[in-house]
């Protein structure tokens, strides 16, 4: 597994796509791109369009941020040896926001349960890829370098995403941090 993280507009997606392309050429293998974004406004629609345009046309794409335990029945998953998930922090955001709770007043025990549900989705992804011998590339934002969020949901997100990133970095064979388009190998 290759784990690539960095800040917003750091070049992490471009770097991940480059690595997937290199692996694909080396292995003569198909790439499955798992896009976790939801087009909730015009700006996000534009970002998604730009990401789609940057990918090779022959790569398969699945738009999905949960239910990874069902991947093995999808034909695109079966046919692909390389799985590129972009991005983990959007996945965490989407999973977090599907809960209809008042994050300003929710009890810590509920937040812990939500985090365990999100972690299960991550574990399902890792497990299914490992079981089927897939090369996995995951892109995520490094969320711990900015200011402390001024609102509770921001703190909850940062904490969960940070712990998920730690879990992925521990599991990964290689970890790269991107800044200004430049990769720094961490592991």
Please provide a written account of the structure:
This protein has 187 residues and is of the alpha/beta class. Helix content is 47%, strand content 19%. It has helices spanning 12-27, 42-54, 75-79, 88-97, 108-131, 152-171; strands at residues 2-6, 31-35, 60-63, 82-86, 135-141, 174-179, 182-185. Strands 3-2-4-5-1-6-7 form a 7-stranded mixed sheet, sandwiched between helices. It is globular, with a radius of gyration of 16 Å. It is an enzyme of class 2 (transferase). Belongs to the CobU/CobP family. GTP binds at residues 6-13, 35-37, 63, 86. It holds the Pfam family CobU.
Task: Tell me the layout of helices and strands.
Elements: E1 2-6, H1 12-27, E2 31-35, H2 42-54, E3 60-63, H3 75-79, E4 82-86, H4 88-97, H5 108-131, E5 135-141, H6 152-171, E6 174-179, E7 182-185
Parallel strand pairs: 1-5, 1-6, 2-3, 2-4, 4-5
Antiparallel strand pairs: 6-7
Give the radius of gyration. 16 Å
- Count the strands? 7
Structural class call reads alpha/beta
The domain count comes to 1
GO biological process, one term: cobalamin biosynthetic process
Enzyme class: transferase
Family: Belongs to the CobU/CobP family.
Pathway: Cofactor biosynthesis; adenosylcobalamin biosynthesis; adenosylcobalamin from cob(II)yrinate a,c-diamide: step 6/7; Cofactor biosynthesis; adenosylcobalamin biosynthesis; adenosylcobalamin from cob(II)yrinate a,c-diamide: step 5/7
């Amino acid at each position: 597994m290759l784990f690539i993280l960095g800040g917003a507009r750091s070049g992490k997606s471009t770097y991940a796509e480059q690595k997937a392309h290199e692996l694909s050429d080396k292995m003569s293998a198909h790439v499955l791109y798992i896009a976790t974004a939801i087009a909730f406004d015009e700006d996000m629609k534009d970002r998604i369009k730009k990401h789609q345009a940057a990918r090779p046309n022959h790569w398969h794409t699945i738009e999905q941020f949960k239910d990874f335990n069902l991947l093995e029945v999808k034909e695109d998953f079966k046919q692909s040896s390389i799985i590129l998930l972009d991005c983990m922090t959007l996945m965490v955001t989407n999973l977090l926001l599907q809960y209809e709770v008042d994050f300003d007043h929710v009890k810590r025990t509920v937040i812990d349960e939500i985090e365990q549900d999100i972690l299960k989705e991550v574990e399902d992804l890792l497990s299914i890829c490992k079981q089927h011998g897939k090369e996995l590339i995951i892109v995520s934002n490094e969320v711990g370098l900015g200011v402390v969020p001024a609102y509770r949901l921001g703190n909850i997100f940062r904490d969960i995403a940070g712990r998920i990133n730690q879990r992925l970095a521990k599991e990964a064979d290689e970890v790269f941090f991107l800044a200004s388009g430049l990769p720094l190998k961490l592991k």
